[in-house]
Specification:
mainly alpha; 5 helices
Length: about 90
């Protein structure tokens, strides 16, 4: 598996993370339905398609509302480049 968003961003919202009690568990770190997408654990490498992730210190809403922020994210760009032709923009079944 490759580096996941909570590791790259050091947000602390992963299970057992430093900010989990304060901000809650991040859905990207706990949602198993996207395990393996873009070679990530849970939804950790497709976080832009998961509602409720953290960005800029604030919990974000739906994937549609956070789209522009995510498309400009350094982690999004890293995953896109690392995955190349295998890159998945949306979750399976979307």
């Amino acid at each position: 598996m490759e580096l996941n968003c909570w590791e790259f961003k050091s947000c602390g919202r992963e299970p057992g993370g430093m900010r989990e009690a304060e901000l809650g568990s991040c859905p990207a770190a706990t949602d198993t339905s996207n395990y393996g997408v873009n070679r990530g654990r849970m939804s950790g490498r497709i976080c832009w398609a998961v509602a409720g992730t953290l960005c800029g210190g604030e919990v974000q809403g739906s994937s549609a509302r956070k789209r522009d922020t995510c498309l400009a994210c350094d982690f999004f760009e890293r995953v896109r480049l690392e995955e190349g032709d295998r890159f998945r923009l949306i979750c399976p079944g979307s």
